Amino acid sequence: MGVGDPLEAPYRLGGAIPAGPWRLVGDGIIVDACDVQFDVLWRTGAGDTTVASFSHHFDVPASPGQFDAVAFDGSADGIAAAATAGDHLVLRFSITSMHPAGTRPYIPNGDGGDALGRIPSLITPAP
User: Fold this and answer.
1) Which DSSP string do the residues of 15-41 spell out, in sequence order?
2) Local confidence pLDDT in tens for the 127 residues of the chain
3) What's the Cα-to-Cα distance from 10 to each of 22, 66, 81, 88, 105, rounded to whole Å?
4) Left, alpha or beta for 42 (phi > 0: left; psi -120 to 50: alpha)?
5) What's the rounded Cα separation, in Å, for the pair 66 and 88?
6) What three-state secondary structure class fits 113?
7) 3-class DSSP state for residue 115?
8) CA 47, 51, 53: angle at the middle one, nearest 5?
């Protein structure tokens, strides 16, 4: 995942998305210091609409090479979206700082507690 090479996690929606506060867990394995953009997108056949965005600078942990997750919690206000059943909510992870081609300075923590962190997730606004 380099600049302009995002990773996405889609979720099929059952209906509208309310406006309000979003909470993000963005824990990741940090191979090199980097800036990461996390976007919550409403995806329809017509394209994507940004619902909420988060950004964070990650530094390399004090014990490099351990592959323990580095924690990140974010909060952001999001817009309402008139989503219908079958639309998607997408969490997009993008590196916004420059790194050598082919490197992945941020890897979403898919190992949860085994990497001493949490699996990335979203908490949506209450309806």
Assistant:
1) S-B--EEEEEE--EEESS-EEEEEEEE
2) 444 568 899 999 999 999 999 999 999 999 899 999 999 999 999 999 999 999 999 998 877 667 899 999 999 999 999 999 999 999 999 999 987 777 789 999 999 999 999 999 999 998 7
3) 16, 30, 16, 6, 22
4) beta
5) 35
6) helix
7) helix
8) 115
Position 18, amino acid: P
Tokens 């409403």 locate to 42
Annotate 94-110 with three-state secondary structure: EECCCCCCCCCCEEECC
Could you tell me the fold of the domain covering 7-109?
Immunoglobulin-like (2.60.40)
Domain ranges within the chain, ordered by starting residue: 7-109
Q: Give CA angle at 90 (85, 94), nearest 5°.
A: 170
